[in-house]
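Tokens for chain A. Residues wanted.
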């Protein structure tokens, strides 16, 4: 039931560490953190105060590339940085190069790839995936099984329902032409995406827009409108009382 804790690791006061956990060299863990069983915290990771990490989670994982991957290895990715009061469920994987703000919840089985930034108070649901080179704003909700593709931009106060899929390759992995058009999606502040909606590559969802459940977005969506269908078309304007400015949120 022994742990491995590198001599160069720094662990704050009041921290608890479960059985069979590994804390590699130069890791910094703040005060009053709860580390579960079989947790692996990779070299150089920086973790704030009052952070909870549940069983079998990995923080600071290095990426691996398939021979045919379009992503090129970087010489050196910075360590993962985790803000105060974050919570990570069981079997979560957070890659190196990630920066997570304070009070973030990442639920069981979720994955956050390298070079991702996530703002404070955001929730990443069970088995959700946020791919590399993506920015997610503050106070967002990314629900169970949603998929945020690489090179995407998600604004503040965005709601993404279960099973939403975003895409970044209109050529579906064929021909060299695709590399000229490879692009993630942009979801502006306050937008809401209904369950199992699909957003095609490079599309922009405007501020406070609503994508109906099951919609397939093939064109940019203007601010403050509701679109529905496959392909998605204008349905009506978002009701005034539903706009973000009228919610009284900080």
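Reply:
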């Amino acid at each position: 039931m022994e742990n491995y804790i590198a001599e160069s690791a720094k662990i704050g006061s009041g921290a608890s560490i479960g059985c069979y956990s590994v804390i590699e060299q130069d890791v910094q863990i703040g005060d009053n953190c709860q580390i579960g069983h079989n947790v692996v915290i990779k070299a150089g990771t920086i973790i704030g105060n009052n952070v909870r990490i549940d069983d079998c989670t990995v923080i600071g994982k290095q990426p691996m590339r398939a021979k045919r991957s379009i992503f090129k290895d970087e010489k050196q990715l910075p360590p993962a940085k985790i803000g105060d009061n974050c919570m990570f469920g069981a079997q979560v994987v957070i890659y190196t190069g990630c920066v997570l703000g304070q009070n973030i919840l990442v639920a069981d089985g979720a994955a956050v790839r390298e070079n991702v930034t996530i703002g404070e108070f955001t929730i990443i649901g069970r088995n959700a995936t946020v791919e590399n080179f993506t920015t997610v704003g503050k106070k967002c909700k990314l629900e169970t099984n949603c998929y945020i593709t690489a090179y995407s931009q998600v604004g503040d106060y965005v709601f993404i329902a279960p099973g939403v899929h975003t895409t970044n390759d209109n050529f579906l992995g064929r021909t060299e032409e695709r590399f000229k058009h490879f692009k993630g999606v942009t979801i502006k502040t306050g937008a809401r995406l209904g369950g199992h909606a699909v957003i095609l590559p490079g599309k922009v969802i405007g501020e406070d827009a609503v994508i109906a459940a099951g919609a397939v977005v093939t064109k940019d969506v203007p601010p403050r409108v509701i679109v529905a269908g496959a392909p998605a078309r204008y349905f009506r304007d978002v009701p005034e009382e539903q706009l973000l400015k009228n919610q009284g949120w900080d």
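The chain is about 0% helix and 30% strand. The CA atoms of residues 30 and 49 lie 4 Å apart.
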